[in-house]
Amino acid sequence: MTPHFKRVLLKLSGEALMGEQNFGIDPNVLKFFAGEVHEIYQLGVQIGIVIGGGNIFRGVEAAAHGIHKVSGDHMGMLATVINSIALQNALEARGIHTRLQTAIKMEEIAEPFIRRRAIRHLEKQRVVIFGAGTGNPYFTTDTAAVLRAIEIEAQVVIKGTRVNGVYDSDPEKNPDANRFDKISYREVMDKNLRVMDQTAITLCRENNLPIIVFNVNEKNNLLKVIMGEEIGTLVK
To answer: pLDDT tens-digit profile of 154-183?
Structure first.
């Protein structure tokens, strides 16, 4: 099988790691994601991964409880590192060579993010996990994912969600919501669709970087995306 994409950036939400729990990391979900990544890793696809931290800590909620926005965002960045370490462990248990790079220096745990080093790891067939967001407050992990994708020259950002694409309203609340097969960056912004935040969408638009939104919880869906099957929604 010849993959449609050679180098990709996979964006996962921290909440996806919770499974049926209300908090934390479900080991079975970690194993599932590791298995999905293993399928495309075996095809020689070069994979970068950014994962959120909402299953552990959310800066927005912290601000509502009196924690300063900057402090809350820094705490959220550290939560992404916890998730990244867990995912790295699950991937390596499948025999996948990985490197964890962080935007905040913590050399005892991970490498600092260095663009050329990250690209070299990818060329050597190592999965690179990017932790700690952009390293700056006020930026989401969606924006971090797009930024890293641009820096490593990925062909596409693949965003794994709980639903099978982009809808005109929340399909979990509205059974009559309509799904888009394809949609432009401008339409996403004009309709205020929650694909990614506006900063991330603007970065994609300015750099002509496509986004594929798909249901990451269905087995083999990631493989189907990599093989070029039209599942989910293409934003370009």
So the answer is: 999 999 988 888 998 888 788 888 889 999
Task: Specify if 147 maps to a domain.
Answer: yes
Q: How far apart are CA 7 and CA 232, in angstroms?
A: 19
CB 235 within 8 A of CB 142: no
pLDDT tier at 195, thresholds 50, 70, 90: confident
Domains identified in the chain, total number: 1
Alpha-carbon distance 70 to 229, whole Å?
Answer: 41
Tokens of residue 37, six digits: 């990544």
Residue 1 maps to a domain: no
Task: Give residue 175's pLDDT.
Answer: 82
Question: Smallest Cα–Cα separation from 83: which of 158, 43, 33?
Answer: 33
Q: What is the pLDDT of residues 52-64, one digit of tens each?
A: 999 998 755 665 6
CATH number of the domain enclosing 140:
3.40.1160.10
Q: Which residue range(s) make up the domain with 155?
A: 7-235
| β-sheet with 127-131: strand ranges across | 111-112, 98-102, 127-131, 46-51, 7-12, 156-161, 211-215, 233-235, 182-183
Domain membership of residue 131 (yes or no) is yes
Beta bridge partners of 98: 127
Read off the amino acid at residue 34.
A
Terminal-residue alpha carbon distance, the chain: 25
User: Within a domain: residue 60?
Assistant: yes
